[in-house]
Each structure stands twice: as C-alpha cells, then as structure tokens.
Input
Amino acid sequence: MRTYSEFTGEHPGMFFWSCDAGLVEDDFGNEVRGLDVLIYETEDDMDADTDNTLSIGRETVIDDREAMAVVREGDQTIGTWSIWTAPNQFLRGLVAQAVEDGEATAQDAEGCTVTAVRQDGEKS
Output
C-alpha cells in the first residue's frame, strides 16, 4: 500500500477524522480501490501561548492488492494474478514487487527464473 499525504492547513483547538472509500487512479493510470482520509488532529506544539494546534491533512491510501501482473517462467506465461489471487507466497511477493516497481524477477525453489510484469491500464 502507498500513502499520499497533503498538508492543508493549521487551526487551533479541534479534533475530527473522516474518510471516504472508492476507486482512485494510481501512478500507472489504473483504477484501484483507495481510501481518502481527512485527518484533523491536535498536537502539542510546546508553545507557551497555545496548548494545542490542529493539523489538517489529507491522505489517500492506494490499495495495490487488486492490481494485476502477468507472471512468466522463461517465455511461457504461467498466470495473471493480483496480490490477492496469486496462488502461493512466492508469487504473491513477486506480484507485489511488480505492482510497486513495474517488473520483478526472482528464482523459484527449483532455480527457474520467474518474471512478473505489471499490467498497465488494467482496471481493478
């Protein structure tokens, strides 16, 4: 998961938290499930004039677990999976790395080279 934060202001004396879930666009232009969170939180600023300040920030949490990657062993495609649907821990890790970096390569337990490539333009 990736989090994008945007600081939007500062106001004294209040606490509030809200969020809205939905589909958002990630770095590759894919629609992925995300959570837009609006956070208002008090912080002790160690200022003699005020006890607390309110930081207002907005974070969008991008959930990449539904993004897809094509997995190949040599020149043979062995599957197309998301982090949720990959059949074992090795492939889940490989797909997760491909989703984050665009491509990932690793050797399986039998010494075969396995490559996963994120599907750009895939709509979750």
Notes: Residues 49 and 89 are 54 Å apart (CA to CA). Confidence is low (pLDDT under 50) at residues 1-21, 35-56. Helices lie at 89-101.
